[in-house]
Design a protein that fits this description.
This protein is α+β, with helices and mostly antiparallel strands. The chain is built from 3 helices and 3 strands. The chain has a single domain, classed as GIY-YIG endonuclease (3-Layer(aba) Sandwich), CATH 3.40.1440. A hairpin with a 5-residue loop joins strand 1 and strand 2.
């Protein structure tokens, strides 16, 4: 059986924006983002991992990543994060 695929969400501590991605190696991918090896997030560092979920295959992970990038998916994602991080100040999003 092959390993999991992950959908992950990073938050920029610089501008508060979210970044959604997917990978089969979560630890390496987070390191890549943190060390500036990803052009999409290099100017938004420092970053923090705020959410991730595992999937049994790549196609499911990519489908979920695409959903989180839709308008409805962004609302769902922000609510999930908000529910998990109740200590965030009002108006954070």
């Amino acid at each position: 059986m092959r390993g999991f695929w992950y959908v992950y969400v990073l938050i920029s501590r610089r501008d508060g924006r979210l970044y959604v991605g997917s990978t089969s190696d979560l630890e390496r991918r987070i390191t890549d983002h943190s060390t500036g090896k990803n052009i999409s997030t290099v100017s938004r560092r420092p970053l923090a991992l705020v959410y991730f979920e595992g999937h049994l295959n790549k196609s499911d992970a990519l489908r979920r990543e695409r959903y989180f990038k839709t308008a409805k998916g962004k609302v769902t994602l922000k609510q999930m994060i908000r529910d998990s991080y109740r200590e965030l100040p009002e108006g954070f999003w």
